[in-house]
Amino acid sequence: MGKLKITLKKSFIGRQPRQILTAKALGLNKVGHSVIQEDNASIRGAIAKISFMLDVEEMEEGNHETA
User: Fold this and answer.
1) pTM given for the model
2) What is the pLDDT tens value at each position of the chain, 67 positions in all?
3) Sheet architecture: strand order including 34-38
């Protein structure tokens, strides 16, 4: 499977505790922070729950960026 670059674009201020915990479980701590995760069903589910807070980019197999 491929990889996803996930970036937090909105603040945690005023969000429900479960939304904050979901973002932190993805490895996101503050606005503008990006992580690279494997593309699988559990990650896609977490992204779907807080999609309004995130930017998600699919990365190519040959593209190995470090975060």
Assistant:
1) 0.85
2) 799 999 999 999 999 999 999 999 999 999 999 999 999 999 999 999 999 999 999 998 765 665 5
3) 34-38, 3-8, 54-59
